[in-house]
Specification:
Elements: H1 3-13, H2 25-35, H3 40-53, H4 57-62, H5 65-71, H6 79-94, H7 103-107, H8 114-125, H9 134-144, H10 153-167, H11 172-185, H12 204-207, E1 224-235, E2 238-243, E3 253-254, E4 257-259, H13 263-272, E5 276-290, E6 294-307, E7 313-316, H14 318-323, H15 328-331
Parallel strand pairs: 1-6
Antiparallel strand pairs: 1-2, 1-4, 2-3, 2-7, 5-6
Helix pairs in contact: 1-11, 2-3, 2-8, 8-11, 9-11
The structure holds iron/sulfur cluster (SF4).
């Protein structure tokens, strides 16, 4: 690979993104966590607000969990932020608030895998560690004409070793960012811009007119579907919410909901538990929310609480409702 040409392309053409203006490991870490499964444009305003509020790992470690969840509401995949909070506490306690500087220490932090550790080590510390994400897999599969299934761990590992061999010949900070940027701007899944690509001269896919054939990715299993009856339960003080304890969206608030396709079944079940509702409105549409591995379909009913209450329900007023972290799946339900 012509690494010099790739790096020169990056230096000249990269976007001026706020999180790329810094080489602080803390900034690289926060941005990489936010960028997992989330578009750059979505991350930018969150990153800027987050850095103002939590400028160092100490402020992050000292943050109240619920406050932190509220600050990242809208980014989804909240487990990553719970891990980030745990890692910040660990850095505060075990490293005196200073971000660890060896790969072995970094990869032991909660929520940091091989990719994020590689990104932090190469971008912040200038050490040659491969950071192989979906963008880099696409660029390398096409460039090398690698037709192995990249859903299989063994095949990804092989590609990771190739990426490692390239970064060892490169300026690690520039190389990692150049590969990410090339994948985002030029070697895109669709509308690939091979004519302006610094790698086009030796790219197997381009030279053989096979760009769309790579990367090879076997079909994912279908997502699991859940049908819920979702209840907006009012009383004179406000609305009832429940704090989630499930792994998905743990710690976020939601409207009480029950896996069922029938409001009557839910009312009967609640009655058995001593709760009487007066349902007065059904929302016209079925709300849908797609997660990585599941899809929720939600039929939404508004009701007045006549008597009883489940112990996990909390009543919140309009002010609290705005303050609490709430899953977007429910935040988008309009009362
Ligand atoms: S030439 Fe095209 S397919 Fe090859 S790496 Fe560049 S953008 Fe990707």
């Amino acid at each position: 690979m012509n690494i010099q040409k790739l790096e020169a392309w990056y230096v000249k053409n990269h976007r001026k993104l706020s999180f790329r203006e810094s080489n602080r490991p803390y900034d690289i870490w926060v941005s990489e966590v936010m960028l997992q499964q989330t578009q750059v444009e979505t991350v930018l305003p969150f990153f800027e607000r987050f850095m103002k509020k939590y400028p160092t790992v100490i402020e992050l470690a000292d943050a109240k969990e619920e406050r932190l969840q509220k600050d990242v509401e809208g980014l989804g995949y909240y487990r990553r932020f719970r891990n980030m909070h745990l890692a910040a506490k660990m850095i505060k306690d075990e490293y005196d608030g200073k971000f660890p500087s060896t790969y072995e220490e970094v990869i032991k932090l909660p929520g940091i895998g091989k990719y994020t550790a590689g990104a932090i080590m190469s971008i912040a510390y200038q050490k040659p560690y491969s950071a192989l994400d979906g963008n880099v897999i696409r660029v390398l599969s096409r460039y090398l004409g690698n037709d192995k299934d990249m859903r299989i761990e063994r095949n990804k590992k092989e590609l990771d070793q190739i990426n490692q061999s390239y970064i060892e010949q490169a300026n690690p900070n520039v190389y990692t960012q150049a590969m990410m940027e090339l994948g985002a701007l030029v070697c895109r899944p669709k509308n690939t811009k091979c004519e302006i690509c610094p790698l086009n001269e030796h790219c197997f896919a381009y030279q053989n007119d096979l760009v769309d054939a790579y990367p090879v990715l076997s079909k994912l299993n279908d997502k699991k579907e859940f049908h819920y009856i979702t209840l907006l339960i009012h009383n004179e003080h406000g609305l009832f919410l429940r704090k989630r304890d499930e792994e998905l969206l743990k710690g976020m608030y939601e409207y009480p909901q029950f896996e069922s396709e029938s409001i009557n079944t839910v009312m009967d079940m609640l009655e058995d538990r001593g709760v009487i509702l007066d349902v007065f409105y059904k929302h016209d549409k079925t709300y849908k929310h797609v997660f990585t591995h599941q899809v929720w379909y939600m039929d939404v009913y508004e009701a007045k609480l006549v008597s009883g209450k489940l112990k996990e329900w909390v009543c919140v007023d309009a002010h609290q409702f705005k303050q609490l972290p709430m899953a977007i799946a429910h935040r988008k339900i309009k009362k």
